[in-house]
Amino acid sequence: MEFAPRAGCPLCGVVSSAAHNPLSSPRSPVFLRASPKDPEILWRDDNFTVYRERAYPISSKGHIIIAFNLHVPSIYRLSSTDLPLLVTLKDLATRHLHALVPSGSPASTPTVDTRLHIAQDSRFHIGFIAPPFKDSKIPVTDHLHCHAIIEPFDLAGWWRAIAYGPLAWYAIDDLIAEIRESVSNNRVKSGYQNRTGAPIDMVPTAGARSGTADGRLEKIPGIGRSDADLESGEAAPLSLPSSAIPAQIPAGIRV
Fold this sequence. Notes:
Blueprint: H1 10-19, E1 40-44, E2 48-52, E3 63-68, H2 83-100, E4 124-129, E5 145-150, H3 157-161, E6 169-171, H4 172-182, E7 210-211, E8 217-218, H5 227-232
């Protein structure tokens, strides 16, 4: 099996623990922890496992890690077929960051653009640490995972901050836009004002298919396990409804 779990990989361990972790109840779907050392799992579906970074967060406001369930080694294994998967990842990260924002704060009641999936907030940072850089406290470099963080980066320190700065940080908006640009004639790169309101963002599957000049489609295998469900907007069988994301987070743990 391509991208099979690897023995000794910390993130493969987190994904495995979430897969075997029963929900507390159908009405209140919160993942149970067998011990305080277990990761605080917030979400698990067919493609991603989401947990809150308690041991070494870089922000006191919130630091979430979204791990790919498959042992994908890097962002460079992603293709245009995976664009719907990346859009889903971005929406998933944004929902969980909103859940961490205290009620009544400016970010908890953002201005929503109804054309988009979920409202964006300028204090939210969602993206990847591009190799060869890494976070010295979370030094996993061969299992693809996304960081979702709320400003400020007050716990990072100057050395760790390099991994989350312009030299190493690969924002998910940039990644989605550059993949789209690589398979189309459209100039859709991010980096300009109001990028999150770009019309192309209304079409999550934009750029996910490529073909030849005579109209033949070229199907590039993606890493997602349910591309058809993702493209149609359906949740994966193991997904939790967005209303089930806990508004308050349990006591801290170490991952």
